[in-house]
């Protein structure tokens, strides 16, 4: 039975050819020992990789000795490596399980390349896939997380992904294959173990045919992912890419079916989450920003601009005259014109139109600081910049990027927000100073 499943999975998914040399990852547990035996029984040329994580003392060493002896008896090349898993986990700020996974997969792929092996085979089975889906669903997931573990990822193949644990156990007993039990599998401290030992048995009480139902549902979820990917591709076709920036037209956000999920999945690689997605769909005010650890979304008049976060230079910029001045990776354009020749556009918060005769040169542009005050356009009294930003619900991360332009008398423009009232254009204005912060 298990051999049939192995053969059908390899053939149906084109996992490997008989001419391929396979690196089989073997822990010494029942699943991986069955997988190794199957590859040997099918006549594949294999080598074995075993990781000793040194997490269970003598038990870990006994696992290694079992696998080494099994390979030695069959003249199978055996490779082993030990890791200080707990130290690596502490260094990365990861769980022990996450660290162990990262360490072993990095070594597997490195070893396969070094030994010129064509595939890396792991012993994931149907219940591993079920546990993964339940974990993803419990913690929250998009369409991709509902499709479980793929049967093939690059050079990594999983020929037992459709096999049930009892089928694996029957194969071991029929062929007299030795294996060792990892006692940590019974420790419900680990999330997967709690699912395996508590949740899945309860689900099987509700539905004794759980494995079959799960397999059918998994195929449905994969079909749904295909439909979703088509919608995502149609959405991405509406985007405008310029260098490192992407413009997301507001018309695309209004027209796309299921736009919340589509946008969430599109933005995920840029560090945004679902709450950020809801903000993007809700914000209508030009100039507002939504930030991720690596990127910035800026609301423009007819689109959202997605760009990598800029490293602004937090130093004072002297502006002695008109011209173009570098502000980090951005540019500040400073021009003068007769009032009769200009048609101010007040809709863009990254531009300022000021009465040039009210300004004392030189100007300075700098990051705002505590204690800064200005008189916002339309107000008579002054206001702390910090209070103004708070009233505008500007996040702490956005505040760090906030700049002001000032002359010797005070702040004349809170860049990206509002000019100071004393510098506004009036009917008597003769010359206009135009400031524009752009790319």
Structure overview:
The chain is α+β, with helices and mostly antiparallel strands. The protein folds into 3 domains: 2-222, Rossmann fold (3-Layer(aba) Sandwich); 239-308, no CATH class; 317-438, Phenylalanyl-tRNA Synthetase, Chain B, domain 3, CATH 3.50.40.10. Helices cover 38% and strands 22% of the residues. It has 14 helices and 22 strands. It has helices spanning 2-12, 30-41, 58-73, 85-92, 96-114, 126-139, 165-175, 191-206, 210-236, 250-255, 259-267, 274-282, 385-391, 396-399; strands at 21-25, 45-52, 78-82, 119-121, 152-153, 156-157, 240-242, 245-249, 289-291, 295-299, 303-308, 317-319, 323-327, 330-338, 351-355, 363-367, 373-374, 383-384, 403-407, 410-414, 418-419, 431-438. It has a 6-stranded mixed β-sheet, with helices on both faces. It has a 5-stranded antiparallel β-sheet with strand order 7-8-11-10-9. Strand 5 and strand 6 form a beta hairpin. Helix 6 (126-139) crosses helix 8. The model has no long low-confidence stretch (mean pLDDT 89).
Helix and strand topology:
Elements: H1 2-12, E1 21-25, H2 30-41, E2 45-52, H3 58-73, E3 78-82, H4 85-92, H5 96-114, E4 119-121, H6 126-139, E5 152-153, E6 156-157, H7 165-175, H8 191-206, H9 210-236, E7 240-242, E8 245-249, H10 250-255, H11 259-267, H12 274-282, E9 289-291, E10 295-299, E11 303-308, E12 317-319, E13 323-327, E14 330-338, E15 351-355, E16 363-367, E17 373-374, E18 383-384, H13 385-391, H14 396-399, E19 403-407, E20 410-414, E21 418-419, E22 431-438
Describe the structure in brief.
The protein is α+β, with helices and mostly antiparallel strands. The chain has 14 helices and 22 strands.
């Amino acid at each position: 039975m298990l051999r049939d499943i192995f053969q059908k999975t390899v053939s149906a998914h084109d996992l490997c050819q008989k001419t391929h040399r396979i690196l089989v990852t073997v822990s010494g547990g029942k699943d991986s020992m069955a997988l190794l035996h199957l590859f040997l029984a099918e006549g594949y040329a294999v080598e074995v990789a075993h990781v000793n994580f040194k997490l269970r003392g003598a038990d870990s060493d006994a696992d290694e000795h079992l696998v080494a002896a099994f390979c030695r008896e069959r003249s199978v090349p055996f490779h082993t490596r030990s890791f200080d898993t707990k130290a690596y986990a502490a260094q990365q700020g990861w769980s022990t399980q996450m660290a162990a996974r990262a360490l072993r997969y990095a070594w597997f792929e490195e070893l396969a390349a070094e030994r010129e092996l064509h595939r890396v085979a792991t012993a994931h089975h149907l219940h591993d896939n079920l546990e993964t889906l339940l974990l993803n669903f419990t913690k929250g997931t998009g369409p991709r997380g509902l499709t479980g573990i793929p049967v093939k990822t690059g050079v990594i193949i999983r020929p037992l992904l459709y096999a049930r644990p009892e089928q694996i156990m029957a194969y071991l007993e029929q062929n007299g294959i030795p294996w060792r039990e990892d006692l940590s599998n019974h420790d419900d401290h680990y999330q997967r173990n709690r699912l395996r030992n508590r949740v899945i048995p309860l689900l099987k009480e509700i539905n004794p045919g759980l494995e079959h139902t799960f397999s059918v549902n998994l195929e449905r979820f994969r079909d749904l992912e295909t439909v979703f990917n088509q919608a995502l591709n149609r959405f991405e076709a509406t985007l405008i890419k310029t260098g490192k920036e992407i413009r997301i037209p507001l018309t695309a956000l209004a027209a796309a079916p299921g736009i919340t999920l589509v946008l969430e999945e599109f933005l995920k690689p840029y560090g945004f989450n679902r709450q950020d997605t809801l903000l993007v769909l809700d914000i209508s005010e030009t100039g507002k920003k939504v930030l991720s650890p690596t990127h910035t979304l800026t609301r423009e008049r007819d689109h959202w601009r997605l760009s990598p976060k800029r490293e602004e230079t937090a130093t004072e910029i002297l502006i002695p005259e008109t011209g173009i001045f570098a502000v980090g990776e951005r540019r500040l354009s400073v021009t003068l014109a007769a009032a009769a020749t200009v048609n101010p556009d007040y809709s863009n918060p990254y531009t300022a139109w000021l009465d040039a005769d009210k300004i004392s040169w030189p100007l300075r542009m700098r990051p705002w600081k505590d204690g800064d005050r200005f008189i916002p356009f339309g107000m008579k009294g002054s206001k702390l910049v910090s209070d103004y930003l708070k009233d505008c619900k500007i996040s702490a991360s956005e505040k760090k990027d906030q700049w002001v332009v000032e002359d010797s008398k005070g702040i004349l423009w809170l860049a990206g927000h509002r000019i100071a009232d004393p510098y506004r254009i009036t009917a008597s204005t003769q010359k206009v100073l135009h400031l524009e912060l752009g790319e």
